[in-house]
Amino acid sequence: MSFQLKNDQYREHRGGHSRLLDLHCEQCESRVAIYQKDGPGELKYVYLDRIFFPDNLTRLEDKSLEELSAWDCSDCNSPLGVPFIFKKDSGKYAGEERLAFRLFAHAIVKKPRNISSAP
């Protein structure tokens, strides 16, 4: 299975540099998501509109903040992050809001992924 990177205003704003990452639980090392990271910098947030796998997370994109619960590893139940709304304070997209998970420190291990590799 191959993935098509999402090419929208957010990717363009971050310089067009995107990559796919396999996200793993640090506690049990199981894969918890496939995620498109746009731009440089560390991974502090996982925007719901950038999750490609698994299906239970990709379907959260249309939910409201009140409908979401904390993100826990499906294998070992370790806490990974909490839902919140990322609000851009300044710049071109000031005032825009994106639903995301704020990651807990040392909860996720990220590994680069080939775009054309299967989940």
Instruction: Supply the number of helical segments.
Output: 2
Cα(first) to Cα(last) distance is: 7 Å
Major sheet: 4 strands, antiparallel
Q: Name the shape in a single word.
A: globular
Given helix and strand content, the structural type is mainly beta
Low-pLDDT regions: none
Q: How many separate domains make up the residues?
A: 1
Q: If strands are numbered along the chain, what order do they take across the biggest sheet?
A: 4-2-1-8
Rg calc: 14 Å
Count of strand segments: 8
Layout of SSEs?
Blueprint lengths: L8 H5 L4 E8 L5 E8 L6 E3 L3 E3 L1 H4 L12 E2 L6 E9 L9 E7 L4 E6 L6
Can you characterise this structure?
With 119 residues, this protein is mainly beta. The chain has one domain (9-112). Helix content is 8%, strand content 39%. It contains two helices and eight strands. It has helices at residues 9-13, 55-58, and strands spanning 18-25, 31-38, 45-47, 51-53, 71-72, 79-87, 97-103, 108-113. A four-stranded antiparallel β-sheet has the order 4-2-1-8. A hairpin with a 5-residue loop joins strand 1 and strand 2. It is globular. The protein starts with 8 loop residues before the first helix and ends in a 6-residue tail after the last strand.
